[in-house]
Structures are given as structure tokens and as C-alpha cells.
Amino acid sequence: MEMNLKLDAFDAVLFDLDGTIYWGSELIPGANDTIAFFRHHGKRVFFTTNNSTKTREQIYERLNKMGVDAKYDEVLTSGYVAADYAHRNNMKDIHIFGSANLINEFRAFNIEVNQDEDAENLLIGYDPGMTYEDLTKAIRVAMHCKTIMVCNRERIFAGEGAKPFPGCGAMTAPVEWCANRTADIVIGKPNTMIVEFLETAYNIVPARALVIGDTYESDVAMAKNAGCPSICITKKEYDDTICVKTIASIPALF
Hints:
- By secondary structure, the chain is an alpha/beta fold.
- The protein has helices spanning 31-40, 56-65, 78-88, 100-107, 132-142, 169-179, 193-202, 216-226; strands at residues 12-16, 22-23, 26-27, 44-49, 75-77, 94-97, 121-124, 147-150, 156-158, 164-166, 185-186, 209-213, 230-233, 242-244.
- The chain has a six-stranded parallel sheet with strand order 5-4-1-12-13-14.
């Protein structure tokens, strides 16, 4: 797709993390230079991820340990946005089918968490350590609860060594299938709640927020749904978005 963006056309840049800034514990070459490029030109920078296994604070610390120039309030995870949503909507008695860190994120908002099967609401988040017992409890809650909220339905993400790993969709799909119902609320990409959070909390205008990510069906789809311009880091070509092969090549587009 022909490049038609100009630096003065946007005020903020929303970077994806897995597969865009890092692969597992490995910082992707050119990521820091690209972040620095946009900061140098006065753009606000945010780091957004569907990953709910870590708290917002843990992701912030991880980025800084990797040498990434990031501030705490620039980091947004699907888990944090889910907790903020639940807090603002006075949701309580929530069973969390997800990581211990996701539970801690909710407790930091003083939200009532109920890990028994009689919970009124259910939240599903990514958890590579889930057990059959965890899945069974979540399904039983889903069969009677008022609301099912999921961090995302992502099929795969680029992890250690840039290899594909199953995402939160691997936790969400069996619960929906076995309970014979679909989730009521989806927080993460390709839904637009992360962008909506930024608009409310930081006055970021979606049309002036550039989304950069490596997954068309989550990063680019969120951008399109929210009315944001986007750049996709991919070896494929898509007619409706700007595509580059590496994050290091992005500054040269401008």
C-alpha cells in the first residue's frame, strides 16, 4: 500500500508488544530506535498488549529491564483495562479464569474476586499454566453467571524465538463451546476498548493515533474498528493497510 501518512497527521503511537517490541525475552532489533524516532518528533507513545499474564507494573518493569524507554502510565494490558472496566461498572463477585497476576490486577482495584463456582460473573484471561480443574470451574461458572468477560480471543502470538504460541483464544473457546454461550464483553484487540480507554483517560483522538503491530486480525483490525491509522509488521501484503517487514524500517517511511 502506498504510504500516505505524515507525522503531523497523528499525535500518539500505540505499539503492540509481543512480536512488535519483543519476542519473549528478546528485544527486537530497531524497536528502541523507532520508539525514539516518534518521541523525538513529539508523539505520545503507548505500549498495548493483549497479554494478561502480567500486571501493568510487571510489563512496565520488563520493558525497562530490556532497555526500552517506557513510562508506567504508557503501558496498557488487556488485564488492566478489564479491571478498570469492571471497577467503573461496579462489577463484583468475579471468578477469574486466568493467571494469579490477573487476579492481583483486579484486587488492586479492590474488586471482589470469587474463585468458587457460584460467582456472579466470569473473566477469562490468558494462562499457560491452566489446569483441567481450572477449565472445569470456569465452564461451570459460565453456565449460570450473569456476564462473561474475556481479555481477548487471540489465536496465537509471537513468543520466544518469534515462534507462535496459543493465545487467550485457547482458554476462551472451550468455555464458550462447553457452556453453549458466547462472551458478553471482549476487552482486548481487535475490540476497541484499549483505544476508548486512551481517549477517556488521556484525551487521545482515535483518528490521530497510529497503531503499530504485527498481527492483522488483532492490531490492524482494532485500528480499523476504532478509526485509527495503522502499520502492520508482516511478510504478507494487505491492500487496506501499510505493511513493512521490520519495525526498524518504519522511520524511513516518513
